[in-house]
UniProtKB/TrEMBL annotation:
Residues 133-252 form the GFO/IDH/MocA-like oxidoreductase domain. This is Gfo/Idh/MocA family oxidoreductase. SUPFAM superfamilies: Glyceraldehyde-3-phosphate dehydrogenase-like, C-terminal domain, NAD(P)-binding Rossmann-fold domains. Residues 12-121 form the Gfo/Idh/MocA-like oxidoreductase N-terminal domain. Transmembrane segments: none annotated. It holds the Pfam family GFO_IDH_MocA_C3. Coiled coil: none annotated. GO terms for molecular function: nucleotide binding. InterPro entries: Gfo/Idh/MocA-like_OxRdtase_N, Gfo/Idh/MocA_Oxidoreductases, GFO_IDH_MocA-like_dom, NAD(P)-bd_dom_sf. PANTHER family: BILIVERDIN REDUCTASE A (PTHR43377:SF1).
Amino acid sequence: MKKLKVGLISFAHGHANSYFASLAGMPEVEIVGIADESQSRVASIVERSGVPYYADYRELLASDADAVVICSENVHHAKQAVAAAEAKKHVLCEKPLGISVGEMERMIAAARENGVQLMTAFPCRYLPAVTGAKAAIERGEIGDIVAVKGTNHGTNPGGWFTDKSLSGGGALLDHTVHVMDLLNWMVGSEAKEVYGYAASRFGETKIDDAGLVHVKFAGGAFAVIDTSWSRPRSFPTWGDVTMEIVGTKGIISVDGFAQKNEVYSDLAGKGSWSYWGDDMDRLMIESFVRSLLEGRPVPITGEDGLRSAAVALAAYESAKLGQPVAL
């Protein structure tokens, strides 16, 4: 069996742990290294797995890896993805793809010029409710999409996410991109105008933890997304991904994490929701790996990442100006 040799760059983003577990469970994958400037952050996983550790991601890029998964702080995505592409490695990069349109364009260009693929990590495309809605839309069950109301609520993740010098932005950037990618995928029309609101409403951090994004599409549809870190620590789960999709013939309601059990634990001291549905991270990782092994285009491209992040960045500009911004 041909194996894909994969390395991981940084475990700064918590999704890296899930991605690692998914890769480790695939017989067609060989994990050839973990690079992280913070050895303590990956010490336990390196010790358990026996995977080689690199303090400098450039040492990993000098290895025989075929591809890398980047889960570093947002400000590092571009330089690491460009370096990986120049080392002829395929890239799966955590969202948001970048923190400026220019650097995302450089990432896409570097992959193209070096003959490798760049995929953006948008696992929400693999949620059962989302794939079901996409199929129903393609069958024409609700006609043409007219409007969408979406949410991506979450708990403030803290740490580097609230440090703009590392994150590039708060909740508006962090949470707009997931739902915006689903809208781009389903509406089938480019976003042309954005009106945004961003503020700090739910905590003591100065970075934005509340956001609303209004989007007009070239085809006439419009959408509004609540992208706030508004979930208190006491809430049963970290957040949600929902959409109310209004068409000319009907409406589809999507609750991405509705496949859950309610768990009441004295140990935890509160009720919680335990998700039992399909593992979206695993499905995304499998699609990345198999696309590369089979020589097919990756399903979620760098251009997809650019289109969604560009809306979030435009929303910040709109919030600053107090008026809509054209894309």
